[in-house]
Structure prediction request, 182 residues.
Amino acid sequence: MNRIAIPSAEQTPAASQPLLAAVHKQLGVVPNMMKLLGNSPAALEGYLSLNGALGKGSIGSKTGERIALAVAEFNACGYCLAAHTYLGSNLAKLDDAEILANRNGSSNDPKADAAVRFALKVAGARGHIADSDLQAVRSAGFSAGEILEIVLHVALNTLTNYVNEVAQTEVDFPAAAALNNN
Prediction:
């Protein structure tokens, strides 16, 4: 049960309604997290704007999903693990082995591996990374702009992880199996 209520269509602020309608048009559904964010038109617009901008970025949707999976696992966000396991598999076309690698903080693709590892360094150090961390992602072939996109993917996914954990958003995606890393 959500700790912050998901508003019904009638309770959703008027300014959020066209944004949620656009989500529905694009996805065919409105995920609970977006309905939750609809409580605040500013929060919903901010999330959608950053997500949309990053969707046009240079690192690509596959690497964006890889980072989302790694950050969701790092932050232990059940909602985001479920959502990004589904999106990674069905939209980004990541296979099960890649999704598992991402959740474990790596990738089976050498360049993406550098991005995922760097993303987790950023998340774990709260941005206070070492020069060697930055050099490693540069050496893997990422430009300054792409490195900034990786950092923004970490920030966006940390934001959604925190929102969903604070609200205890009801998962409306197929549940992601727990990893036995303990």
Q: What stands out?
A: The chain has a mean pLDDT of 96. Residues 144-167 form the longest helix (24 residues). The two ends are 27 Å apart (CA to CA).
